[in-house]
Write a structure and sequence with these properties.
Nucleotidyltransferase, domain 5, five-stranded mixed beta sheet, 5 helices
Length: 155
């Protein structure tokens, strides 16, 4: 299965292509798309949709995931990133693409483990990913990749 993992920031779309086979995964492609040249929100949203169409065409995946700008349900910390991920939701709905929102609470709930154990598992998984794959602990996508790995390998 190929999953495209996104993290939206105010002026940047971070994404990577992750090929998952059982618990093994490889990072096939990792890129950033700048939105800073867009002068209006309309241009920005058009650029996001254009970029999503190009990514879907180039990688041919029907599974997208994103690292939510919300750490916890109901608490929007970054309105711009939230709006950008809303465009991702629209795109996926219109193009029959499965979309998975990754937040620590939702993953912990799906794994049905206590918060203390989840935090330990999260740190261990992050360390394992950094040790095995071409990604650093400071990378914008590491948290989302860690949550995705936990979902796919520990459920």
């Amino acid at each position: 299965m190929t999953i495209i993992l996104f993290k939206f920031e105010k002026e940047i779309i971070n994404f990577l292509e992750c090929k998952i086979n059982n618990c093994d995964f490889t990072i096939a492609k990792k890129e950033k798309i700048s939105l800073s040249a867009c002068k209006t929100r309309g241009q920005k949203y058009d650029q996001i949709l254009t970029s999503l169409n190009q990514i879907k065409k180039d990688i041919s995946s029907t599974h997208f995931a994103y690292q939510s700008p919300q750490k916890y349900r109901g608490a929007i910390k970054d309105e711009e990133s939230f709006a950008n991920t809303s465009i991702l939701h629209l795109f996926c709905e219109q193009n029959n693409v499965d979309l998975l929102e990754l937040t620590p609470p939702s993953v912990r709930d799906k794994l049905s483990i206590p918060n203390k154990d989840f935090k330990l598992l999260l740190e261990k998984e992050k360390k394992d990913i950094v040790d095995k794959h071409p990604i650093t602990k400071s990378d914008k996508l590491i948290d989302g990749l860690t949550l995705l790995s936990l979902l796919k390998c520990h459920d």
